[in-house]
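Hi support team,

I've been running sequence recovery on a batch of backbones for a student project. Most finish fine, but this one hangs at about 90% for roughly twenty minutes before it completes. I'm not sure whether the input is malformed or the queue is just slow. I've pasted the structure tokens below so you can try to reproduce it. Let me know if you need the job ID as well.

Thanks,
M.K.
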């Protein structure tokens, strides 16, 4: 199972970015998929998740600004980010979990991408 993120970069406050995560592996390995982020000196934070049946989950910090979606046919997970703030600056990771709750708890997810940097400045 391999997850590969792309789409990070430098954006001005108020701008938008779309992150992508391509999943290489069996569909059974992604009962839950999520986006997490980690800023220097801070704990890893779960920000958006989606269950196989389409239920979506968001952290309060991004609700109304970020949207998670997936293209199951192409095995791609997306995170559309609008109204970006400097505090959104972090390394963003996608992750997958085979079964169980889709809570945005990073310790529950088994497979991780390498991360993509988002800088809002």
């Amino acid at each position: 199972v391999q997850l590969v993120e792309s789409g990070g970069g430098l954006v001005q406050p108020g701008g938008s970015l779309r992150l992508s995560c391509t999943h290489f592996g069996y569909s059974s390995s992604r009962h839950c998929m999520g986006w997490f982020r980690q800023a220097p000196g801070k704990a890893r934070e779960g920000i958006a998740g989606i269950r196989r049946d389409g239920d979506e989950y968001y952290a309060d910090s991004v609700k109304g600004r970020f949207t998670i979606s997936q293209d199951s046919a192409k095995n791609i997970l997306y995170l559309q980010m609008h109204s970006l703030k400097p505090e959104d600056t972090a390394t963003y990771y996608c992750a997958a979990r085979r079964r169980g709750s889709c809570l945005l708890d990073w310790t529950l997810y088994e497979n991780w991408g390498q991360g993509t940097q988002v800088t809002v400045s």
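--
Follow-up from support: It reproduced on our side and the slowdown came from queue contention, not your input. The chain has a mean pLDDT of 93. No action needed from you.
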